What does this fold into?
Amino acid sequence: MIEALFNYFNQEYVIRALVDVGSMTLFFVGFFGLLTQRHLLKIFMSISVMEIAIFLFFIGSIFNKTYTAPILGDGHTAFVTMNDPIPHAMILTAIVIGMAVFALGVSFAIEYYKLTGKTDINDINEMREK
Amino acid sequence: MSSIYFVALPLLFGFATPLLQKFGKNGVAYASTGMQVGLFLLALYLMATSFWAVEIISINPPLGISFVLNRASLLFVFLFTLLMMLFSFYYLGLRKTDPFPSENKFFILINMVLASSIGLVLSSDLFNIYVFFEIAGISAYILSAYHKTPKALEAGLKYLLTGMLASVFLVFGIMLVYIHLGTLNLAVVSQTFHTLPFNMKMLISLLLFIGFGFKVEIFPLNFWVTDVYEGSSSLINSLFSAIVVKAYLFVFFHIIYLAMPASDFAPFLLMTGAVSMLAAEIIALKQTNLKRVFAYSSLGQVGLIFAVLSLENSAAVAAGFFIVIAHSVAKMMIFLSITSIEREHKSVDIATLKELNSPFLTVMIVLSMLSLLGIPLLAGFVGKFLALKSFAMSGEFVVLGVIIVASLIESIYYFKITGNLFEKGERRRRLSLSKSQKSVFVTLAVLLVVLGTLPWLFSGYIQDASLSMVDTESYVNLLMGGLK
Amino acid sequence: MNFKRDIATRTYSGFAIAALLILTILNILLQIGPPDIQRAGDQLLAMSADDGVANAVTSVVVYFRGFDTLGEIAVLFIAALGIGLMLSAHNRTTHEESNYILKKASRMLFPMIMLFGVYVMIYGHLSPGGGFQGGVIVASGVLLLLISREEFEVPHSVISALETFAGISYVLIGLIGLLVVDKFLGNFLPNNISQMGMLFSGGVIPLIYIVVGIKVGSEMSMIVQNLIQRSDDD
It folds into this structure.
């Protein structure tokens, strides 16, 4: 019984559907948070969740389950039948950049809170609106 | 001679600033300005010798990253280095009386803006463009919130939130391109993009449009711009509207020309640009804050540039380049003038202009507004005239009408401002500008007048530049051949 | 009442908009799966055999796409600069003494964390890891110290010197590559394939990654210290 379940989930199209649906659900959660939350830090967190969802989607789409990790060792001596290393590099860069901008945003929010005591995004109206 | 110096040197300067601090209080300022003068001279030399090249970084394209310096990108590199150099000279004059706090960080940030804007224009790799996008963005967010007043922090927060959102969609689009086309190089994308199924093409285009749309400041996605301009200091606004936005425009249309030439998206882009201009000019009528008025004016001109560049033929692109140059020079003049006015009068309300007592600044402001409007004998006229001609030749008469109506509306509030400048009333004491600041204004004014009265001196180069931008075949051959 | 209804409308409309967008995207994604094509990464994988580096991801991050890594370093640098500008760590008041267990355990753990971080940095080209990962581990060690000791402050001049040195050396390595092999960030140190798997292999790649590690470690430590500051009116 477990065997059959395992074999079912190991098929290509099931894995692809799981990756797509799963990462898009996470993206939905983040986007929903972005649209409805009002606290500044929660908005930052929602955008962060959206970013993570996209990285998950990317890695899941490129992944080939018959290949192994792109590194020599454990008996591998040649760069064949290995997964694509470019997505790893891209996501590494994107994670660091996302984290840097997030930290900067948090510092803006902290400083703004120290000066005015406001964290609700609807209350931020220092400038006269048109 | 290598185009990498334009990006590597400001980066090196930024990293090395704590060392340069040891050379006294003015060390960083003079080193930064000196380096920018050097870069400008390099750009001038490259333009004079009609240099073009593909600069290979690490490995050959199409597998690696490369910088393509053709006439179009060289034009923009020249424009950016020139404006940044003039900006530094103005600041050298300003810092004698009103230096920015933590000045060394300020110099690092403006050099990062320069490096990333030039990198955006030169790069030929999608993910590299994303990285430069982020560098430009993050320097801009900090510059926006630099003075740490509640207004500035609000501006910084708004800019940062919309920027983060833009990056999310842009990364999504780039990742989809890699999954389905297997490449990140613009030349290969150009060759294979049309083979995608229609659904995926639409999705990727939509994602890239949203990602770039926030930064290119077109209609539905530019709600954040005016608040950011009002909250940041006017000195920074001049950088934003003269350099940063133009870099994003160039990249956006570069990608469009390469990946989707003559597509069905062109009418949509055209309409978006026209609507953007009209909406911005109408809303500008009710503004009383100088920074907001000129922010809306910027949005309007950017809408015009967007509309004219979406026509995708060489004449239209040449018109677009003319408008870009004229607008950048004029906006830099205006925002630098507002900086001086704000320093003296401590307020940026339009009514403050009645108290302005500086014939020099009055002439400068009126000159730049006339250029933006499109009065003959100034640079803006050439650009607008060529743009209207392109619209007429493509048969887009509705857009032509919209642009003319928007320009008329623009003239209303420009005349209101001019009226305030010349109104008889009580004047404060005379506003004095240092010599370096005056020379900056004079240089910019001379540029406007020369471009306006003798356009044929430059039109040859700008025609070549626009040809090389629209000519995707040679771009692709250049990169696939991997020449140096 | 009005307030509750406001929140309800916003929540429902947000849900509807988000669901609409996501469902259209999901539809398109499910219809068109990832095609089975030869991607740029596969060709780079084959090329990395000539590099002499065992970890293909490292050779992609540092060498084939080294310019993106330089840009990423610039972003981190500017972010640390901005956070330092916004929250200066000057007003740090003493707070309660931290837990006894924390204090004693951190004395044991800190050297091990630092050692592990440095190991990950240096062996980045042989085993999974590298400059970014090692730098973050080092910064977490610094965070441990900041939490467990009240008067600990990362010495600003040391961090600044390390960061400057690392940043300048990265760009200089690139420029030297430009002058020597005519490509910015080209590999100009010897990198025989026979050396693959040894510590000194891959030419300029482990050097760059160590420099990246130093920079990331020092910048993350500065960010962490600035964010942990407490002010008087807390």
